[in-house]
Each structure stands twice: as C-alpha cells, then as structure tokens.
Amino acid sequence: MNPPEKGKNMNKNFLTAIFAFALILSACGSSPSDEELAKVATSAAQTVEARFTEEAENASTPIPEANATVAIEKTTSPANPPTPIPTNTDTYLIAPEGCLVANLVSETIPDGTIFKPSDYFTKRWVIQNNGECTWNQEYQLLYWGGDLMDGYTAYNFSDIALPGESIEIPIQLRAPDSPGVYTGFWKMQSRSGYIFGVGEYDAPISVNIDVKNEDDIEYGIISVDYYMTRDPEDGCPANVERTIHAIVTVNGPMEIRYRFYQRESDGGIVKQKKQWLRFTEAGTLEVSNAWKLNKCVNAKPRYVSLVILDPKTDQPIYQYPEFMFINDCPDMCP
Fold first, then answer.
1. DSSP state of 201
2. What is d(CA 317, CA 287) in angstroms, rounded to the nearest whole number?
3. Residues 6 or more apart from 38 whose CB is under 8 A from it?
C-alpha cells in the first residue's frame, strides 16, 4: 500500500474521533470545553502514533539493487580508530564537473625518507583548491589504501579554502615496527560524500617511507631536478643572465659538498666555487648557478651540472646529468 494513503486514512480517523466525541457531549446537552477537546486530540494522536509504529515494525527492510551506488557520510575519527578497510572501490560518488578540482602544491617527508622502527613523524600536504566549490571543515582527508601507519581513517580539514586558495593538511603517523618500504594513499571527501584526488587524473596523494634499523641507516640524495630562469625574461640587451637552479632532495639529515660545472659546446669546462649544502632532516633545498652571456656569443648548446665532492678531499665523486640550454640572442654584435 502506498505510504501517503496510510497517512490520509489516519488523519481521517483522528478527525472522526474528535467529531464523535463532540456529538456525544452535545447529546447530553452540553458543549465540549477546550480541555475536553484537548484530551480527545491527545488520545487520537496516541492512537495514530501507535498505528504508525506497528506498521513500521511490520514493514520489510528494502534490499538495495545489486548495482546501486551507496554514499556513506564520514564522521570525525574516533580516538582509537578501527582496523581500516581500503576505500578504493568503483562505487564512490563522482562530483559535478568543475566543482572539486585540486592540485598538490608541496609536501614534506619526500618519498624514500628513512625512519627507524616506531618513529613518529608528521606528513604535510599543501593542496590548492582549483575548483568552483568552497572547502570547509566538513571536508575530510580519507584513507584510500596501502599502509595506514597508525593513522586515522579520516581527518577533518582544519580550515576553509575558497576557490583559488590553498590549505595545509597535516597528519601524524608512525613508522611500522619492522624494516621495509611502506606506502599509504589518501584522497579527499566533500561533506556530500564526493571523493576526489589531485591533478588531471584525480590521483591520490601518498606518503612513502623506508624503515631501517639504526645500524643499517645510510642517508643520501634521492633526486636532483633542474630548471632555468632568465634575466631579463625576454629581449636581447647587451647581457642576458641565465640561472640554472638545482632542486636537491635527501632522505635524512646530512651535509653535501658540491660545485657546479659549466661546459661550453666545444668541451671547455669552468668549475664553479665549492660550497656546502646542509640538511637537518629529510627534505628539499635549492642551489643555483648563474651564467651571463653577452649578445656576441653563438647559439650553440651550453651545459650545467651539479657535481658532488668528497667532503674530505674535495674530489668529485658523482656528477648529475647536465642541464642544456641554447642562447636565444646569438651573434648580435655589429
């Protein structure tokens, strides 16, 4: 039977009870008082309520269709979270196009960071809101799979991020007790249950660590990446300075002795000043080398590379791949 029809029948019963009672009182030669009418209304309401309860208890529980999509609203994580169940299923809700768009701006704890067993650490991501919807404190960072590392399965955002703004999301984790490489994946969830990641492919963000016993720890450089800036940004004045930046990432505290090599296309090398790069923890630092060219030089390729030196002897022990650029203001002398 259709539920709205049940409601109509009960409303009819309610009105009939009041009307019948009023007829009885009028037959006795008196009009019902406000108090008497109130008692009748209360009695009728209790009857209706009891009828609703009985029908609800006797109703069968609906069975969802096999292919139905189920949205689960997340709540704030408990102090002692239950054993997590990976949430990377194919049935999560997809947000309206353009609403929830995010990009990873920066993060701490670079991939491959070394920790001793049971070490606590804080992973931080800075995420930019590039969508059309505002993020608030009802949004969550949601465990997506891999190694949880003693974290919660969900963390509420600590602040609001309007479209175009960025938000920092920190979580405290603990390195597992056994040596090995561990990786955990995370996505974000809106207050309506939409799940989203970062970048063009909606990818999860992650934390990746290398757990080692103290006697086996050896810190080192994880990666070196280059990029170049130009001063001025365009045009061909008498001199143009190009600065090659090297982004150095390491997996723990260490000191690095280094220098840059500048190589001309004819093979000639200019060795730059020797310097120190000091890290107090795993992370990323940037060093740079400026190369000024006047407008009379040719357009042949030129190369810059970062060279790691032995800290005791200053002899080169490793040269990273070269960064190549071409002079875009060649042979402009009169």
1. T
2. 18
3. none
The string of DSSP letters for 258-282 reads EEEEEE-TTS-EEE---EEEEESSS
Q: Are residues 267 and 241 in the same domain?
A: yes
Residues 163 and 245 in one domain: no
Enclosing domain of residue 232: 221-326
Domain-ending residue, one of 182, 200, 216: 216
Domain total in the chain: 3
**DSSP per-residue letters across 203-239:** BPEEEEEEE--GGG----EEEEEEEEEEESSSS--SE
Residues 106 and 211 in one domain: yes
Q: Is residue 179 part of a domain?
A: yes
CB–CB of 106/86 below 8 Å? Answer: no
Predicted TM-score (pTM) above 0.90: no
Q: Using N-to-C axis directions, what is the helix angle for 3-27 and 34-58, rounded to 10°? A: 150
Residue 84 lies in a domain: no
For residue 320, give the CATH number of its domain.
2.60.40.10
Residues 6+ apart with CB under 8 A from 331: 296, 297, 298, 299
CB 44 within 8 A of CB 14: yes
pLDDT in tens, 211-267: 999 999 999 999 999 999 999 999 889 899 999 999 999 999 999 999 999 999 889
89 found inside a domain: no
Q: Are 176 and 151 in contact (CB under 8 A)?
A: no
Q: Which of 251, 268, 230, 256 is nearest to 311 (CA)?
A: 256
- Residue appearing with tokens 């002897």: 313
